[in-house]
Fold each of these.
Amino acid sequence: MMEDGVNPQKAKVPKVRIPKSIWERLCAPWKNAIIIKLLGKTVNFHLLHARLLRLSRIEGDFEMIDVGLGYYIVKFSTPQDCSLVLTSGPYKMFDHYLTVQPWEPSFHPARAKAPKTTVWIKLLGVPMLCYEEAIVLYLGSKIGKPIKVDQTTLLATRGQFARVCVEVDLSQQLPSSVDSDLEELP
């Protein structure tokens, strides 16, 4: 207890809320950003930046920001480049995987659990009539957060498998397969 009888642990702490319009304005410059982390290896900022330049086929500029604990935020000048890097993995650098995930406004490296990353999944045994974007995204949602269906699947130019890019949480066990009843459609 303090001299005036007020317990500092019970004192009310003001809660600050940012108005939605201001929050949206603050988030807007980050809409073409991703979060990356090289798993199991620490490398120099400039070396990682140079490797990222060579790894992807981006056409515009990008800015890389070290946010600590091996995490980096990469801001792209175009949404196409952001989407390309987000969906073209998985990436390997120095024999280690580079995790890539969409930028999140509340991301903080000290509170980050296991990293998330995007991966391409082959869906075997999917009938050609199911090669519609909404259906393939739905199937992908059974493994992770669906991001994108590949163009070959959408055009149905090959029928051996459908491919979908999903974001997976590496702290969760990933299924080695998913069972479906697609052969027994009504």
Amino acid sequence: MKVILFLPLQLLWGVGASTFKPAFITSSSIAPLSTHSKTSFRLCGIDANTNHHDLEKLSNVCTTDDTMDMLRAELKGRLLKAADDYASMRAKTDGRVLRAKEFEEQTSAEASTKEPKLVPRLLGRIVRKISRRKWKKSGDNPLSQPQGILTSESFKQMKIDVGETGNKVIELAEQLSLLNPTPNPTFGFTEYGGVAAKENKLNGQWKLRFTTASDASFAETKERGVATTSQIIDAEKGTFTNVVDFEKGKLRGFRVVVSGKPLSNTDIQLSFKSVKLLRKSRFPRLFGEITIRLPSGLIRWLATRKRPQDERNSPYLSLKYLDEDLRIHTTDSNNWFVQSRIS
């Protein structure tokens, strides 16, 4: 049994230009498409008396499920490509900032025994200012100050300026969300909706591909190197574990455990439980791991103290898209997350 779905006409035309071309579909063209092609179209409420002018006013097209799969595949490919472009651009930007900082430190060290010390410091600042001007002109300035793990700013999930490249990712994510194949993504999470936890598609480990949240973005530094981030979801226990690992340094990484409670078929309330710090130590059994229990009430207040009274009083996420290998969600702070499945 084929499922008839609806989507905006401009979306159908805007995706996959090589496959779909703007054209009016008349009643006489429906039969050949239906009999000779697995993918078929038909216009809603159209008969032989419908004129061309009325066709231009149509905003929806009925399309079969296999056509929707083609549209999703096309949009997913564009989205992940845009996310990779943003990650590459951000890595280059972070590298420039790191080199500018190293230059400033080097010149300061070389001139530490010389007078005046002001000259090398000014040179370093000039280099950084020139670099920043170049990034501003390009329209992409994703720089953000690193946030502390336990600061109120971190729990409020501040936004970063993702620039033109990042905005393209968000635009594609919004379009793909219209084609979400999982209308009830929270069903099965802690057996919500009477569905077994093993049936929930959120289960598994997910790699972060793109985000606008500053607390989930870690720029490369001399001390810790490159950071890798992912998330492990256990639908049976109802937990999200944010995994952050650093390339080098005394702090190997950390784990943030968050419990979730479904609020609806798309929204999950979040409650921070603990942070586990992974350290390099000569006595790993004693000092290699340090777990900090988080007071959920205090964190809830820090995250929502500036929120209007009529809004929810706890952090939450809203699932926009979910299939077997891609997940898109937003948070109560209007931050976007795009993640792909690892396992």
Amino acid sequence: MSCSNLVTIPDAIKAHKKSTDDVKFIDGSWHMPVGDNPRNGRAEFALGPRIPGALYFDIDDTAPVMGSKDNPKSLPHMKPSRKMFASAMDQMGITPRDTLYVYATNDCAFYHRAYWTLRSCGHDPALVKLVQGNLDEWKENGGELEEGELVEGEDKRLFRMKDLGWEEKTPKYQCLNEDNADDVVVDMDQVLNIVNNQKDANAVIIDARSAGRFNGSAPEPRPGLRGGHMPEALNVPFTDLLLDTDKTKFKPMGEVREIFIKAGVAPVSDDDAESRKIVCTCGSGVTAAALAIGLEESGLRKKEDISIYDGSWIEWGGDDSTPIVTSSS
């Protein structure tokens, strides 16, 4: 297993205090847009407090436009093209040599997708770090915080991709060329092939949703979706991997590894090709990233063996033609 990309708050503060141009801090906070008064990561970043000089990576905005030719099914926060990603990096002032520290605001359990996107779209994975801990802990350890509200349209950190004219420009940022760059996500046809050819697919599907949603006994938070799961999928609720007391931290990786193994994810050797590949899925492709990180950081799989089903349950559960299993099936 490669060196861990998880960073403690004290180590992140040390990196921030160096104040070098090749170190960038990125708020990757995101929240489920459900309920009467849902939190909004972008709005909270603008309101503050935030880490001084921090940038904001908006997984909803840096994504194919809903209804466009690149996203005809209008699925949320899909993986951006390499050109869109590079254009966002240019706007954020990020170069391929920069070390990126992705952090989240207090009680945010959904910032893993921002980290995953940065590592999967063209930045050197070794240069992207995931800060373990929240802003309260940052302050308690002597970290500085930036106060004051940022104004949309005035502060360049609150850009919108649609305003950049990026489609007609050639980005300066050069994405890292990886042999498996297109394998980090799979589509519904590829998942159907795994489901319909389980003996020959040599892949395991892991679902990050709660046990109730997985079994079909609890309702989906988004209207119009069927309940249940893909045939033969395993269930590892992403919250099981995180500390109960702080959702911005993973449990010790030894515990994370055992959670996966107990759920049916078998360890593999370098020479074992069978069932090496893992497809992580969830409601909309966000919390699947927590599974992907846990699998890699715990040493159960290498990064190149892990994919995310980007459409996830919004696509699968919203299509009447896909097979579904429930607890009453």
